Amino acid sequence: MNNETHNSWRSKLDEPAAEPGFNKVLAWDRLEERLTPPAKKRSYAWYWLAASCIAALCVPLFLQRTATKDTEPAVPVSIVFASPDKQSTQIKSDPIHQEANPNKELMQASARHKQKPEATTKKLRPVHTLPPVVAIIASPDIVPPADSAKSIAIVSRSSKQLKVVQINELKPSPATAIPTASAGAVNALPDKKQGNGKNISGSLFNLNIPLKTN
Amino acid sequence: MHIESIFNEARKGSIAAQKYLFDKWSDTMFLLCKRYVRNREDAEEVLLDGFYKFFVNLRDVRFQGEAALAGWLKRIMINQCLMFLRKKNAFTIVAESGAADTPLDEVALSRLSASEINKLIQQLPVGYRTVFNLFVVEGYGHIEIAAMTGITEGTSKSQLSKARSMLQKMLLQKETHYEQRNTQ
Q1: Residue A13: which of B144, B80, B95, B119 has the closest Cα?
Q2: Do residue A5 and residue B55 have CB atoms under 8 angstroms apart?
Q3: Domain boundaries, chain A
Q4: ipTM topping 0.90
Q5: Contact between B73 and B22 (Cβ < 8 Å)
Q6: Rg (alpha carbons) of chain B, rounded to whole number
Q7: Residue B61 domain-assigned?
Q8: Residue B120 to residue B114: CA distance in whole angstroms
Q9: Interface test with B, best of A8, A22, A29 (most B CBs within 10 A)
Q10: In terms of C-beta density within 10 A (0-12 exposed, 13-18 middle, 19 or more buried), how is residue B32 classed?
Q11: In this structure, are residues B152 and B66 in contact, taking their beta carbons and an 8 Å threshold?
């Protein structure tokens, strides 16, 4: 009996309606705020460390590069234009430079050629490891104009001497015989051996026609 | 949803599961805190601290049933209340010996409503109230109370008898007040 009464008033204390409740939503919001871990503050020390490492790696490379640029001599770049009928130009240049921007270099070479068609020499970036490479460019836009007097190729003489034949020495072949009227006309011409003996072969009828002789 | 699965979710850090557990036990735990800590705002603060500890330490606990989990949460809340009282220097128990063990009229107490009982308990001084709550309401023994509060077993017993006698006086006053009202 005593235990029952004791349990009855004790159980009353645990009833939620015993006391006016509290603001559960507000309390939960506060608790949730505490439970959720705060966003980690971004540590800038790592960024500074990474930047200093990069700088430490880059500065010696830069210094080494500037030192080599000052000490080593420049390598000449020759641009030699071939004959216009071949429509090609030979440019001796630095291969690294060509890889960097070949179109720009070619345009510059073309402009220089218009001013000075002869072989030019220009000091470019030093090349100390690789030998200069000849690049053959077949681009028609950099070929010099055809009307340029200096750019016309010199046609060389044929080394073979052709025999000079007098017209009188020619003997018509039977296949190519001159018709009668023509033959008469030819016969009507004064002959050195016949006629008045006047030699006119050198003035009018003495033609120097180069003939191909085998 | 089964309480074990909710417990497991809360252990993993699920906010939804933690909110479910908070909604389930927050009212009961608030009443518990209010019995120890008189001030309402303080009781709410202690409640939040207790729930925070509960959720943080949940990952180290194995599920052994709902009653065990509720008991563990209750224990956390009581410890939190005692810590709060110690921090506020409100928990000053003066050792008093030779107090006569006054029996509490539990029949009269059971006639009262829950809010009336709570009001009577809250009128007790801090020391009396704490020992009374721990011994009578929560069911701890004097040795446990001594260990929890840092007092001797004898002091706990004397505090309890004083609390009972004081509560009995208040009950008698209340009953005479009711009788006077009924006769008028």
Answers
A1: B119
A2: no
A3: 76-142
A4: no
A5: no
A6: 19
A7: yes
A8: 10
A9: A22
A10: buried
A11: no
Contact B30 A21 (CB under 8 A): yes
Q: Does the beta-carbon distance from A31 to B48 stay under 8 Å? A: yes
B contacts of A31 (beta carbons < 8 Å): 22, 48, 51-52
Is the residue at B94 inside a domain?
Answer: no
Centroid of chain to Cα A37: 60
Query: Structural domain of residue B124, as residue ranges?
Result: 106-183
Task: Give the model confidence (pLDDT) of A98-148 as tens digits.
Answer: 555 666 777 777 777 666 555 555 555 655 565 655 555 555 555 555 555
List the single residue in B with minimal CA-CA distance to A1.
B107
Choose, out of B21, B109, B116, B122, the residue to mutate when testing the contact with A (most A CBs < 10 Å): B109
pLDDT in tens, B58-92: 888 888 888 999 999 999 999 999 999 988 876 66
* Residue A182 token pair: 């023509």
- The type of residue at A115 is Q
Q: How far is CA B36 from CA A157, B25, B69, in A?
A: 127, 17, 21
**Angle (CA) A28 A29 A34, round 5°:** 95
Distance from CA of A21 to the nearest CA of B (A): 7
Q: From CA B74, how far away is CA B53, in angstroms rounded?
A: 12
Q: What is the pLDDT of residues A53-112, one digit of tens each?
A: 999 989 888 888 887 766 655 555 555 555 555 555 555 555 555 555 666 777 777 777
Which of B26, B56, B87 lies at the terminal end of a domain, its last residue? Answer: B87
Q: Is residue B177 part of a domain?
A: yes
CB crowding B59-75: b at 16 or more within 10 Å, else e: eeeeeeeeeebbeebbe
The span from the CA of A3 to the CA of A96, in Å, is: 101
Measured distance CA(B160)–CA(B125) in Å, rounded: 11
Phi and psi dihedrals of A88, rounded to 5? -145, 160
Predicted confidence at residue A101, as pLDDT, reads: 62
């240049």: which residue's tokens? A93
Q: Are residues B13 and B68 in the same domain?
A: yes
For A121, phi and psi rounded to 5 degrees? -130, 130
Same domain, B13 and B57: yes
| Contact pairs from chain A to chain B, CB under 8 Å | 79
